[in-house]
């Protein structure tokens, strides 16, 4: 199978999964959260990976939403607009996006890696909270231990260097 064919099959499967997720969210109307993380691909393009977090039969479940390419920069405006454009249904992607009124009533969580561009004053979390008033922003629990470990090792390294002759 060629790389082109594999890419087309992968895209088709992901669109079908998104369609099924949107249909389920639209039908059941659960409260939901969005988790995003920044990444840079091999070509140097900035992206956001997005997951939707919902409760299904009493259990929290994270479902992959998509990889959103940032248009120009990692500015707060671009990092707010790109995921919103991907989440909100338009005429072009009516079956692959959510209705804005549903999002206003049910979007309650926003988790990030704690990057300043996402959580600082006048940044993505604050801009989203202005539009979707139920949102509570949090620093992703998976990133906290990593940052704690990194800071501990960094501090220990500096202390060792200061003590060595």
Description:
With 165 residues, the protein is of the alpha/beta class. The chain contains six helices and five strands; from the N terminus they run αβββααβααβα. The protein has helices spanning 3-28, 76-87, 100-106, 116-119, 124-131, 143-163, and strands at residues 32-40, 46-56, 59-69, 107-112, 136-139. The protein has a five-stranded mixed β-sheet with strand order 3-2-1-4-5. β1 (32-40) and β2 form a beta hairpin. The model has no long low-confidence stretch (mean pLDDT 81).
Helix content: 40-55%
Query: Which range does the strand content fall in?
Result: 15-25%
Give a count of the beta strands, DSSP E runs of length 2 or more: 5
Task: State the order of secondary-structure elements, H for helix, E for strand.
Answer: HEEEHHEHHEH
SS field, number of helical segments:
6
Q: Runs with pLDDT <50, length 5+?
A: none
Topology:
Blueprint: H1 3-28, E1 32-40, E2 46-56, E3 59-69, H2 76-87, H3 100-106, E4 107-112, H4 116-119, H5 124-131, E5 136-139, H6 143-163
Parallel strand pairs: 1-4, 4-5
Antiparallel strand pairs: 1-2, 2-3
